TrEMBL record:
Family indicated by similarity: Belongs to the binding-protein-dependent transport system permease family.
The protein's name: sn-glycerol 3-phosphate transport system permease protein
GO cellular component term of the entry, any: plasma membrane
Domain ABC transmembrane type-1: residue ranges: 103-315
Species this chain originates from: Nesterenkonia xinjiangensis
Length: 326
């Protein structure tokens, strides 16, 4: 008994000599642990995201900033000398008749390509969403043109649109009609490339619309059918409002694609840009065509960048308010 009491007294004396960490020391340890955790997170972040960030900076933002610098120069492609002209290239583009023509052609092409792709894509999606024989093969056939090379598609359509030996000229001749001068008339040339672009890209819209249609709850449509709502009423009152997120997504992406991804078709079908010089094609023609105006071409590229940025920002700010998310 005496021994136990003596041991307890010894422990109490040791506790009094080593009272343990103070509150300040505990707080310092917690701060040190938080710093170590934060340092470890930053190390992992830089380890995994660092290479991608470097690639983005090297291949996207560095060329973008360099292009902005070139846009302030009067520089011919291949020339060893360049003269700084400030914003004169931008002034020339916005005030010249050729610049106005580029905006006109770009606006018509974008409107025709976006509306044509989305309307036809929605109609096709409504058809292949039905339980019909060969539905899987039809979906594959509709989407196939989207993954084909734009150059290959344009070459095939060149044979179709040939005014003398093309397949379309024979079809029109069967109805007693002559083929339009697709390549000589500027208006017909623009209409021709819009047709080809829509044909190539409507499969993308159809597949995205199909995914949107299949996400609509079936019980809503069945309830509307029981209430004797017709197909048109069900489409405009149920299907179309629930498709607005899909419509908004396709509207944004199609505008961007039509202004940036149509170059291969335009260059192959109309190499000189006769009536089809959209803004992306004008960048090529001014820099690598007969003009060799690299500085002027760089200024048009900068204008295209900020135009797409502004259009997308306006769509996200105002158009998205009309979107109905279920």
């Amino acid at each position: 008994m005496r021994s136990t009491t003596s041991s307890a007294d010894d422990d109490g004396a040791a506790d009094q000599q080593n009272p343990g960490p103070t509150e300040q020391e505990l707080e310092a340890n917690r701060r040190k642990a938080r710093r170590r955790a934060k340092s470890r997170n930053w190390t992992l972040f830089l380890l995994f995201a660092g290479p991608n960030i470097l690639l983005i900076l090297a291949f996207i933002y560095y060329p973008l900033l360099s292009n902005m610098y070139y846009s302030t120069l009067d520089w011919r492609l291949g020339s060893a000398t360049a003269t700084s002209v400030g914003l004169q290239n931008y002034v020339d583009f916005f005030t010249s008749s050729s610049g106005v023509e580029v905006w006109r052609v770009t606006g018509i092409f974008t409107a025709g390509a976006v509306l044509g792709s989305m309307i036809l894509g929605l109609l096709i999606a409504l058809v292949i969403n039905k339980k019909i024989p060969g539905r899987t093969a039809a979906r594959t056939a509709v989407f196939s043109p989207y993954v084909l090379s734009g150059v290959g598609v344009a070459l095939v359509w060149n044979f179709i649109f040939d005014p003398h030996r093309g397949a379309l000229s024979h079809v029109l001749a069967a109805f007693g009609m002559s083929s339009p001068q697709w390549y000589l008339d500027e208006d017909w040339a623009l209409f021709m490339v819009i047709i080809v672009y829509v044909w190539k890209n409507l499969g993308y819209c159809a597949v995205v619309f199909l995914a949107g249609l299949q996400s609509i709850p079936k019980d809503l449509l069945e309830s509307a059918t029981i209430d004797r709502a017709g197909p048109a009423r069900r489409f405009f009152s149920i299907v179309l409002p629930l498709l607005t997120p899909t419509v908004f997504f396709l509207f944004v992406t199609n505008i961007i694609f039509s202004m940036t991804n149509a170059f291969d078709i335009l260059r192959t079908m109309t190499p000189t840009g006769h009536g089809t010089n959209t803004i992306i094609f004008e960048i090529y023609l001014q820099s690598f065509g007969a003009y060799q105006r690299a500085g002027y071409s760089a200024s048009i590229a900068v204008v295209l960048f900020f135009t797409l940025f502004l259009i997308t920002a306006v769509q996200l700010r105002f158009v998205e308010r009309k979107v109905h998310y279920a």
